[in-house]
Specification:
Cofactor: Zn(2+)
Structural class: mainly beta
InterPro entries: Carb_Metab_Reg_Kinase/Isom, Man6P_isomerase_Firm_short, Mannose-6-P_Isomerase, MPI_cupin_dom, PMI_typeI_cat, RmlC-like_jellyroll, RmlC_Cupin_sf
Number of domains: 2
Order of helices and strands: EEHEEEEHEEHEEHEEEEEHEEEEEEEEEE
CATH class of the largest domain: Mainly Beta
Number of strands: 25
Organism: Blastopirellula retiformator
Radius of gyration: 20 Å
GO molecular function, one term: mannose-6-phosphate isomerase activity
Largest sheet: 6 strands, antiparallel
Shape: globular
Protein name: Phosphohexomutase
Strand content: 35-45%
Number of helices: 5
Helix content: 10-25%
């Protein structure tokens, strides 16, 4: 069998205390009638967390099985990795997320079990008035200052804050302190890692009065205090209708604004493509797809190029390895 058609996966939902309902109301996800839903993992291969193919001859296969059975066809020009290296998700921050930090690859390799580091990027899809994100420490903050602020419950005072607008993008390298604030709906591309150290969780408790665990010493040991404040990304035009939002050693993140049909793929690399606005038909000779806002597909490296045909103006993200 050849891995040569665009793959849709069944989303995996995460219910965390800070979630809301916008994954259903704004992105059309089939969430339960009750409860809060924080994240929709669209493409993932991380231990027991596995995307499952939703259609076609490979329906029911997990991402780990695709990597094992069809690695060359999936990765193309890139070396076959033990796991799919990227994770793409949507997040509904109905409340503030914990102020946190993730290790880099070297630090992640020392964990038991070992994990990748977590470099990530956010694209803001919706922002309520006054919504904030906390991205990096203020320039003067060192380890001692942050340790004192942690003990005195003043971590937020030391954070660099931005009030983003829809369409803004921020790049969060591993070892950078950060948090999404309440009122944000976000698309996130990241390394396939789920290692998170919480530095501060807004003094939240559950119904029984219990706080979520914090990881103060791990956080202080992980943070790169030379990074300082994180600015918004400045999009760079790379082709007609295409902006480069992020280019790093872990992934490339492009935004496509489509008013007419455009081809993608056929370049010996995989592409994760997600619709942020509008509706798009993916023209493949054997497996055409129609995608609405909030829907995602993976185009394997072995696939022929496909045509993206928008029904009116559409905005998409295109994510791939450098």
């Amino acid at each position: 069998m050849t891995l040569d058609y665009p793959l849709r996966f069944m989303p995996k939902f995460r219910q965390y205390v800070w979630g809301g309902r916008r994954l259903g109301t704004q992105l059309g996800k089939s969430i339960d009638a009750e409860g809060v839903f924080a994240e929709s993992w669209e493409v993932v291969d991380h231990g027991e967390d596995q995307s499952v193919v939703a259609h076609g001859l490979l329906q029911g296969k997990t991402m780990a099985e695709l990597v094992s059975l069809y690695g060359d066809q999936l990765f193309g020009r890139h070396p076959v990795a033990p796991q799919f290296p990227l994770l793409f998700k949507f997040l509904d921050a109905n409340h503030d997320l914990s102020i946190q930090v993730h290790p880099d690859d070297k630090q992640g390799a020392l964990l038991d079990p070992p994990d990748l580091g977590k470099t990530e990027a956010w694209v803001i899809m919706d922002a309520e008035p006054g919504a904030r994100m906390y991205v990096g420490l203020k320039e003067w903050v060192d380890r001692d200052a942050l340790a004192r602020a942690t003990a005195e419950n003043r971590v937020v005072e030391l954070m660099h804050t931005i009030e983003p607008q829809p369409g803004d993008c921020v790049f969060i390298p591993a070892q950078t302190v950060h948090a999404l604030g309440k009122g944000l709906l976000v698309a996130e591309i990241q390394q396939s890692s789920n290692t998170t150290y919480r530095l501060f969780d807004w003094n939240r408790t559950d119904a029984a009065g219990n706080s979520r665990p914090l990881h103060i010493e791990q956080s202080l040991a992980t943070i790169d205090f030379a990074k300082g404040p994180v600015p918004l990304q400045t999009p760079q035009a790379v082709a007609e209708g295409v902006e480069r939002l992020v280019e790093c050693d872990k992934f490339v993140l492009d935004r496509m604004r489509l008013g007419q049909s455009r081809q993608i793929g056929g370049d010996e690399r995989f592409h994760i493509v997600s619709v942020l606005e509008g509706m798009v038909t993916v023209d493949h000779p054997a497996h055409p797809l129609q995608l609405n806002k909030g829907e995602t597909f993976l185009l394997p490296a072995a696939s022929v190029a496909v045509t993206l045909a928008p029904s009116g103006p559409a905005t998409l993200l295109d994510m791939y390895l450098p």
